[in-house]
Every structure is written in C-alpha cells, then in structure tokens.
Amino acid sequence: MRTIDWVDGAIELIDQTELPTQVSVRRITELDELISDIQRLAVRGAPALGVAGALGVALIAHTDGDRASRLADAARLREARPTAVNLSWGVDRVLTALDDGPDAVLAEALRVRDEDIAACVSMGLSGADLVRDLVPDRPRVRVATICNTGALCAVERGTALGVVQTLLEQDSLEEVLPVETRPLLQGARLTAWELKQMKAPFRLMVDSAAPYLLSRGLVDVVLVGADRIAANGDTANKVGTFSLALAARQAGIPFVVVAPESTIDIGTLSGANIEIEDRGPGEVIQVAGTPTTPAGTDAINPAFDVTPAEFITAIVTERRVVRLGNDGVVTGSGFLTA
C-alpha cells in the first residue's frame, strides 16, 4: 500500500493520525482538504510532502480557474508547513508544467512520485552498504532511530527505515531501537507499526532513555531522516535528533542521515537559516485529548531541531554518499552543492 498516490482523478493518502489502531485511506479532491491534511499530519515526512506538493499542483491544474488563481493556490500549498523543503520543492517543480496544460502537470507530478519510489530503493541499498562498512565487526547491526522514516514518510519503503528494511532483507539486522518521539509519538505509533509489518525485531525506547542506552553499547549505528539539509551539511529533523547526535558522538557511534536529494537546500547556507516550526502548546500539554498538565500551562513546542554537520558521519541520498569528518568537512567524493 502506498502512503500517497493519484487514483482516478484524486489524491489518495493514508491518514497517519489514525495509526496504529486503524488504516484509513482518505480521498482528496479539494486543495483545502490537502492543506488541512498536511497541517494536521495526516500526511507527513519530507519525501511524502514533496509528492503531496506535486500531486497538489496536479489537483489545482484539474480544477477551474485562471493562471493567477492557480499560482495563488500553489503558493498556499507550498507554505502549508515551513521546515520541510520537499513540500515547496514538489510544488515548484510541477509548476514548471502549468502552462502546458493539466495532463502535462499530472505527468510531471507522477514522475515525482515514481522518482521518489526509485530513490528510496537506492537509498536503502547504499545505506545498507555504508552501515556494513561503518560497522565491519558485526554481521548483524543494532540500529537506533527517531520519528518515522519508513514507507509512511515517502511513497514506499522510506529513507532511514528503508535502510533498516534493506538490512533486514539482507540478513544484516539484529535489532531496531526506535524512540517514542514525543510529543506526537511518531516512533511509537508509526515506526513501531511499520517494523511490525516488516517483521523486524525491535524494542521501543522513551526519548530520554536513548542517550544513556547508546552510552551503554546497545546500539551500533544511528540512522535518521531529514526535513531540510543546508548547503554546509547542517540538518533539520524531528526534535530529539540533536540529542541522539550528541549521544552518538560521545559513544563513538556512527550517525547517518538518509534523505533524498530534494531535501538538500543549497539556498540555505547553514542550520542557522532554517525556519523551525513551533506547533504550539496543545500537543505538549495533553495526550490524545487528555490534559497532562495543570490548567493554563504554556509550552515551547519546536517540531524540529538542527544537528550541526560536525556531528554527522555521512549523508546518504539516492545519488551519493557524502562522508563528513569530525569538523563537518567533506572527506568523500561529491559535496552537497554539487
């Protein structure tokens, strides 16, 4: 089952807010529905947002309106979430076909979808090879990860969890240790669900336990996704990623970012220039609608944090593996701005 797709003139997507208790597929025919689903995280994950942006433009092109109104709708779509660059990338790429008519727009959007599927296969294979190279003394590796980076974050297979799936298929995986990923529990709700689907061995960790468990030698490599990679290699990802990177550095464990080329934003020079979305206190002061704090409690709720390049061992895309030294300087072939 694909996370998001174009089916008979509409966008169909798995509503990730219903998981893990229910697999619900939504059929989207109106732009406002798609924008709402992006904002409420019914569809999420950087690659999936890129495809959502692309298919959203196809939806716009197949509805009534002149060029100006369609461009205005596309602008609303690309601003639905600010941190993940893939959303605006998908919108902007497909807009290049707008003047060629609705069929050309849809064809370009479907190319974005198909390229994402191929990219995830490629990242899985390259990432698995890299992990074995980084951890040569263990025939089966133990992987820590955060948030959700499997098929639910893309169209199929995913990014960091796609590497995990490939390791499993190649009999190179011992165990996965995902963190719950507070406050919305994408690790507990989504990653755990996907790991069960692929029959991978795993144990869930609370977020605050991860650094300690890394220090105790329970993990061989940390694999994470990315929502935006700056030109210097600084990487924005789900909040809590920076803590894992610090712990991995302290424990001497490789820390690997897995993301498609579309996540690299060469127009953003460093992590200091990445806008970090704050989703407000509501997600922090309650769980599933049940208050967990005294009435009137305020909260800071950044959805993402930024890991500096010097804490990243390597960045894996569908095209290349970029190795970074301890000072954040590239030590392998190719660079993010290439």
Could you provide a short overview of the structure?
The chain contains 9 helices and 15 strands. By secondary structure, it is α/β, with parallel strands linked by helices. Helix content is 36%, strand content 16%.
Which helices and strands occur, and which strands form pairs?
Layout: E1 4-7, E2 10-14, E3 25-28, H1 31-39, H2 46-61, H3 67-78, H4 85-95, H5 102-134, E4 141-145, H6 160-169, E5 173-178, H7 186-197, H8 210-215, E6 221-224, E7 228-230, E8 235-238, H9 241-251, E9 255-258, E10 264-265, E11 286-287, E12 290-291, E13 304-307, E14 314-316, E15 321-323
Parallel strand pairs: 4-5, 4-6, 6-9, 7-10, 9-14
Antiparallel strand pairs: 1-2, 2-3, 7-8, 8-13, 11-12, 14-15
Helix pairs in contact: 2-3, 2-4, 2-5, 3-4, 4-5, 5-6
Care to describe what's here?
With 338 residues, the chain is of the alpha/beta class. The protein has two domains: 4-115, Four Helix Bundle (Hemerythrin (Met), subunit A), CATH 1.20.120.420; 124-323, Rossmann fold. It has nine helices and 15 strands. The protein has helices at 31-39, 46-61, 67-78, 85-95, 102-134, 160-169, 186-197, 210-215, 241-251, and strands at residues 4-7, 10-14, 25-28, 141-145, 173-178, 221-224, 228-230, 235-238, 255-258, 264-265, 286-287, 290-291, 304-307, 314-316, 321-323. The strands form four sheets. A six-stranded mixed β-sheet has the order 5-4-6-9-14-15. A hairpin with a 4-residue loop joins strand 14 and strand 15 (321-323). Helix 2 (46-61) runs antiparallel to helix 5 (102-134), helix 3 runs antiparallel to helix 4 (85-95) and helix 4 (85-95) packs antiparallel against helix 5 (102-134). It is globular. The mean pLDDT is 94.
